[in-house]
Amino acid sequence: MAGEILIIDAVATNRIVLKVKLLVAQYRVRLCETLAEAKAEIDASLPDLILLDTAIGKDAVSAFCTALNADERASLIPIIATGGFTTPKDRVAALEAGADDVLSKPFDDHILQARIRSLLRSRDARQELRMRDGTRTALGFAEACSEFTAPTQLLVASLDDTLAPDLGYLSQTLENVQVNTSAPESITREPIKKFPIDLFLLDFRAGLSDDKVLFRILSELRSRSETRHSSIMALLPTNARHAAAMALDLGANDIVYSTVAAEEIRHRCAVLIQAKHEADALRRTVESGLEAAITDPLTGLFNRRYALPHLSRLSTESRKNGRQFAIMALDLDHFKTVNDTYGHAAGDEVLRQTAARLQGNLRAVDLLARMGGEEFLVAIPNSDVVHARKAAERLCDLIGGAPFYVGPDRQEVNVTMSVGVYLSDGTDAGEKIESHGALVNAADVALYAAKSGGRNKVSLSAA
Ligand code: GH3
Ligand code: MG
Asked: Buried-most residue among 163, 184, 258, 380 (CB within 10 A)?
């Protein structure tokens, strides 16, 4: 399932309008009129995300966020504060109170949906971290940071030669931070060798005449091994709504518009830096030997050896809980032609970038593996037919919708992908088919239908 969202808004019409938008996107929705009602709802069952209207009262909102963040069970639930936010200070106040994001009304639907997806992805990653470390204390940024002495490296890539004053302000107001600068194009041309960058600030506020420049930088940063895990913030002109939504889906961790005040940028940077250090801590806990045995060296994804037993476990678990799940076989179209036209090394780079795009768009509970060659596998627990199809179509668009740039000359390569989806009903009736080999075969049969149906499409089969 896409997830459950709790809407808190005193105005009935607002609640209903928002509910309809979220239902269309396959979220389950609960509605609350007051914070007291919300608290009872959260105590009864934890939602995946909260949309909180700040008209309910500044102090009450602040107390609510503080209480939620202090509650171990609920502290990872992302909160989006919505409201009129008449002054920049109001936005910062909501963020400082503990909201993960603020959206000024009226908000753009695409941005809202992309924000929700992005926040849920990072929530899942943090949940995984918490699970592995065992205790909340071990996770606390303060503890992790006490060992961390090297300065946090920021790289500001901006169209102007001079650093914008609000970004210069970061080096004075963020602790232990070193600010570096670069032209946007050099990020994609030159390898970043000097030191690992913790946070990229892509400052396009002066103008984004061509969206593709931003998409290319994001795809590249997410696919390079040295920047794959860096945090990324894109700063955009206020009219770049489409680019903003796509940037979030391509792996930007945060976007801000040119109207946003320096203090808000500072706050958001501090949050991104903290998230980066937490994620680094997680990666350090994975033993490198074990990791190598189950990892595909080209893309860094799980390999077939890891994926197959995972599918068996998923199938058993789902049957136990009577939940549906989806298996997708993804295969790049006419990939042989990419190798033949641009060379094998360029083909490898397309594979790496494909892996990065897919990974950036899936949640931590979803499995992504490279099964061999140009074939990938995705397993989505707890998914119904509508959600599975939507997810598959989104992944398909993510590959076909923006070109890849490869080789020393950053040549543009357009690639499409076909996806076969097998949806298990998660009941005993499906048992006969749900050995891991049979699951992969079933998705492969659907993939074959997508290929013979013309490629660049999704085909679905069910138990
Ligand atoms: P279709 O749309 O039917 O899937 O056509 P296709 O060309 O993608 O499929 P085919 O199976 O004919 O060719 C797959 C190609 O993938 C051939 C092989 O050289 C290439 N390939 C497999 N593994 C790798 C790899 O690790 N790197 C590169 N660069 N190419 C690879
Ligand atoms: Mg292929």
From this structure: 380
Instruction: Kindly state whether residues 403 and 317 are assigned to the same domain.
Output: yes
Residues 172 and 53 in one domain: no
In the reported structure, the alpha carbon of residue 376 is separated from the centroid of ligand 2 by a whole-number distance in angstroms of: 10
**Which candidate in 263, 264, 349, 374 is catalytic?**
374
* Listed residues 228, 262, 287: the one ending a domain: 287
Ligand 1 pocket member 166 (CB < 6 A): no
In the numeric block, which tokens belong to residue 67?
A: 């209480």
pLDDT in tens, 274-301: 888 877 876 666 545 466 678 899 999 9
Nearest alpha carbon, ligand 1 atom 29: 347
Q: Give the residue from 79, 107, 135 where a domain finishes.
A: 107
d(CA 298, CA 293): 13
> What residue owns the CA closest to ligand 1's atom 31?
373
Ligand number, closest to the Cα atom of 352: 1
The finding on whether 456 has its CB within 6 A of some atom of ligand 1 is: no
Question: What digits encode the pLDDT tens for the residues 45-103?
Answer: 999 999 999 998 888 988 999 999 888 888 889 999 998 888 888 899 899 888 999 99
Q: Are 203 and 157 in contact (CB under 8 A)?
A: yes
Residue 370, in any domain of the structure: yes
Whether the bond into 106 is cis, omega within 30 of 0: yes
Query: CB–CB of 164/185 below 8 Å?
Result: no
374 in active site: yes
Number of domains in the chain: 3
Yes or no: say if 4 and 27 are a contact pair by the CB < 8 Å rule: yes
CATH of the domain at 265: 3.40.50.2300
Do 300 and 424 sit in the same domain of this protein? Answer: yes
Residues 211 and 239 in one domain: yes
Tokens at 177, concatenated: 């931070």
